[in-house]
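Feature request, filed as a ticket because there's no other form

It would be nice if the structure record came with a short human-readable summary line next to the tokens. Right now we just get the raw output. Example of a typical job, pasted below so the devs can see what we mean:
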Amino acid sequence: MNNILRKLWIYLKGLFRNDALTLTFNEVAQASHFFIAAWAIATAPDLWHGHAKYWATAGVVAFAAVKEFWYDHTYESPQTRGSDSEDFLF
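Raw output as currently delivered:
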């Protein structure tokens, strides 16, 4: 666990170079995708008990697949959507 926290700390320190926040729009979007999905999976058992975290995980994966591989191709320009697989993995 300490190794993971150490790596996370090194990553977070790297975001602040030259006393300025150096995040790109894509990095902010990827972080928000990750934390919303993690929140949905983590809170599912509190709302629906039983095997809810597994159903929530399947729901998040299905939603991400539809959103990244169908919706983005249909409604976003290639410049806006970027890499589909990178977005799906986040």
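Something like this underneath would help us a lot:
The radius of gyration is 16 Å.
The chain has five helices and two strands.
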